[in-house]
From TrEMBL, chains A, B, C, D:
Keywords, alphabetical: Amino-acid biosynthesis, Arginine biosynthesis, Cytoplasm, NADP, Oxidoreductase
Segment forming the signal sequence: none
Protein's recorded name: N-acetyl-gamma-glutamyl-phosphate reductase
UniProt keyword Cytoplasm present: yes
Known catalytic reactions: N-acetyl-L-glutamate 5-semialdehyde + phosphate + NADP(+) = N-acetyl-L-glutamyl 5-phosphate + NADPH + H(+)
Pfam families xref list: Semialdhyde_dh, Semialdhyde_dhC_1
Subcellular location: Cytoplasm
Length: 338, 338, 338, 338
């Protein structure tokens, strides 16, 4: 596969919020041809056009949703050079295994390949990982931090939405911190909870409310890839898209503003991250875009960092494209809405 | 039952949005004692406290939700002087029949007793009415208009939310109109769609969108009780509570502003309706209250009337209490949040 | 100016909601180079970077807002081939006059050149039009309907947001109608009210509420360009972007669904308009896009048509680009977010 | 003044969001007669009925807003037994001084009497306190904690909205903490920012965004009355009413769940505070009510506590009534919407 040739891509799990955004972005990515949109076998959505589920995609993605069966899987193997997986975690673990060989790139947006240890899946995801050997093959797709590894990855685990916002804020200053744990207070829009109807995600119930206290599965992901203990508390807000993470950090004595500014300067060569001293990013600044906006504030040894992303884009679909771009030597931003 | 003695009341269908509001209002109504909150037999909510489903009711209504079975139905018959029904329509038709005798007042918030003809239920509700003989017994509980009938009613059909807003705007000026149909453009908050999780009512899907064009079941209800042809078009808005109905009416030649003002003066003796000439009521003016706010505007023979209500209160629970008050000779507003 | 050469463009009135969207779209339009962002002389925003007012534009449009004075006006005359005006109406009338000659294209997003008669400005806009001779020069930029005229226009009056939605829904079926007036019930997001802080547009006040009853200035615009009497009633909704217009139309006896379908087929060659029979477009389907979604419903001689647009895009900035594209022989959709 | 006699009350600063809520509650408080609603002299709102500014108050509070001048001040002195002040801080300091004697109770909802040291006003409020001698007279009206002092107070400083939520969560467990500072992450609805139109509080700008980092004036208030160092970070959310505060606390080694539960049991005798172990209170649970809902979660020595209030009620107007009730020996909840 050489640069700028068109790559045949499919999306599995296309009917979800992240999956449908992915289809939209893949369809207009100059390097990719969207060859198929799949849902799990037996899904009620099989046979329906994606644009019937998402009328905003009429004229944008007019493919039908195909139920994934052995035949279509075989066809994917025969033709797809890039497979995006946006299904439930356990299904994703199975699919990645079935599709993994040296003929295609697998970009998994589920959590199935984000944690290093099989045991973590029992503890945090509630299932025994069926193919733990792939965990060490997967490259964690935090695009700005794993640029080199991604250039050669065949299995990419796109980070969760909360970890993306948190780690982008945390990693530059990690060496400046005096103590753990880091406090991460985060608020997400309701698309983060997925498209399956539940009481909690009804429009009539939306409000601002914490959840998953001490036990959200993004906590171990943040800790592993951030190499820091964190107290991570997600909240569900009464809005559709976006995450705002507020991090409370303790700097080592003597750390100057200059030190912090230099640390965040790492993002000067990464166009999807915008940083500002004493900036307070708003979710509406990044909604519908692939940006992560970071603002930091220091007083003595206290450091407060805000990070805002669109959970479905930088927290899922557009970060997946950044990973793909890095894999194929494209500029990070190709096809990313900025 | 004499005035101001405490009446034993139960609510059946207490787990829904209207039902839970009703429980809250009944619990603090000076004339009533809330003796039980019921859900249908086999409901997953049976056994749960209402305040677990609705944490805002902690300390307000601490009763458990009881599954309705033959035993509890017998007990309701033995003790309840007032039964509020807020279940699905067909269940309500059955319940009203089982509970209807001269020992208690039944106040039905479902649609089961709002239409005059049994055939209407086949056409508009999709079921064959099991007890059509009760349709002629029921008094339509549009409180401001059926004050006299309600004083003697034993079965009260509380109007639907859209019909309440529409009819309160329409009825005073009906004799001034030159032509039909009346255009009614209405927008409702999502609680109007009920508590059952569906794709359409997810927080992630809320927007502004028409639905039920030409075939919403509130159209025949409006036409029957308004004695006018209407083109009624409901819309679902991205908010929780409230309805704004905008009516487009054609006045007879020569109708003056004075004529219209006099027509709406009918509400001067009805404290739950507030009228203003050239007023544009906002949903937030009536949210969480039992008011209906009406504003009217005339230009030549064009008359535009806005009516705003809280769909769960004036459009359901508080109007039910107005009916109860009228039945027992209380002031209309007793227990109504104003 | 030949096709695909880069055209130097400036935006005057860049600090408003429509103006800033315009800057964003102009900056990435392949035919245009955004050479300047202007605000009125003495504006408090002069000297500030546009991306400080709109942090979402950091890295996207990094130009400063320049106060417009005689010097900068001279410079615009010397260099700009395309001038977008997004100021207040009266200022726009003055600016268009000062800049109008055969060396540049003026695309005016204000209302200053939408109405044919100077007298209309006294009546509906509250000022005496300073340069009425330009009113007959201006081409009304309803892109899908004035394709031919726009190809030669030097002064383009971009339609208002409400008229855009209304006229796109109305014009195809106008010849099928039996009577007037047409009822247009429309709801807009709060960005339509502009960026100037007022009580009515505070976040704390947003709700759903009618306004401008019988006297909104978009009514004569709709009537003039739709050649039909309308009763147009705008409402302000509790959301940021988008308009949903619901039109109530009376078809001539004998009009079939086929007739209506054929009428709307006019949009098959216009990619920014998507039409569906029995479709109910939602604002979220067109938010942040340049689409207009139309859904139509017929019952007997009643025709109900919904039209949804993003008020800042199809209702302002992206329609301005469609006009520009048509003027320069580009495909309509170049640079339009779809 | 003996219990249950009617007390003459006035509200100064009645046109604001907290002031208008206060008028509504005072008007229906059984102990009070609302004798006047005042705004500052020269306010554009003077002469207007409060219910014109707030149409939801039509029929509820029909008094006009009176401009406060020397004459009306004299009249207030002659007649009012209770004066509520809901003006800007500096004006409140002046008013309290002018009205303070042993003939009436002053309940100040501004920040003018919340801090102990005059110097604090220079630092945190930007003005030199004109009457510092009153600072030591004022009783801080955190109703659940100063029950005794409030019984004899003549000048009551009602706590700020953020301090109310924070201190109610913090104070019970303060003796169990191992270290400082306490992290307080709080999100408020936009009514907290007041009724004066600003860009930040426009409906078109609302999103989720931090502000006042390290320098919000509620930080010293929390620290003083909580006797603890805090890192307090407020955020503005895209909703109208309510505050959710999330507190991150470090327990001393060996602290058990039992210890924490016993600490929070202090609220069992305070009906306006509802506490739940492992509860995650939502803002919608307390919206439009005088409740504070607290949920606490412990893991090892980590303690996370959520507190939700309605910022205009428990965070302002209804807490003012609780203070009044305690002052006059009434039950705390009289007139408080629960």
């Amino acid at each position: 596969m050489k640069k700028n040739s068109s790559l045949t891509a499919v999306v599995i799990g296309a009917s979800g919020y992240a999956g449908s955004e992915l289809c939209r972005l893949v369809a207009r990515h100059p390097l990719l041809t969207l060859a198929g949109c799949f849902v799990s076998e037996g899904s009620v959505d099989a046979g329906t056009k994606l644009s019937v589920l998402y009328p905003k995609l009429r004229g944008v993605v007019d493919l039908p949703l195909q139920g994934l069966d052995s035949l279509s899987l075989k066809q994917i193997k025969a033709t797809a050079q890039v497979v995006f997986i946006a299904t439930e975690h356990e299904a994703a673990a199975q699919l990645a295994y079935q599709l993994y060989d040296n003929k295609r790139i697998i970009i998994d947006l589920s959590g199935a390949h984000r944690l290093a240890e099989a045991q973590d899946y029992v503890t945090h995801y509630g299932f025994s990982h069926p193919h733990p050997q792939l965990l060490s093959e997967a490259v964690y797709g935090l695009a700005e931090w794993h640029t080199g590894l991604l250039a050669n990855a065949n299995l990419i685990a796109v980070p969760g939405c909360y970890p993306t916002a948190t780690l982008l804020a945390l990693k530059p200053v990690q060496h400046l911190l005096a103590s753990q744990p880091v406090i991460v207070n985060a608020v997400s829009g309701v698309t983060g909870a997925g498209r399956k109807p539940t009481h909690k995600t009804l429009g009539a119930e939306l409000s601002l409310q914490g959840y998953g206290v001490f036990n959200h599965r993004h906590q171990p992901e943040i800790e592993q890839h951030g190499q820091t203990a964190v107290v991570f508390t997600p909240h569900l807000g009464a809005f559709k898209r976006g995450i705002l993470a507020t991090l409370y950090l303790q700097l080592a004595e003597g750390t100057s503003c200059q030190d912090v500014a230099e640390a965040y300067a790492v993002y000067q060569k990464h166009p999807c991250v915008r940083v500002g001293y004493q900036h307070t990013p708003a979710i509406q600044d990044v909604e519908h875009s692939g940006y992560c906006d970071i603002g930091w504030h220091r007083k003595g040894t206290q450091l407060i960092v805000f990070a805002a992303i669109d959970n479905l884009l930088k927290g899922a679909a557009s970060q997946a494209l950044q990973c793909l771009n890095l894999r194929f030597g494209e500029p990070q931003t190709t096809g990313v809405p900025l």
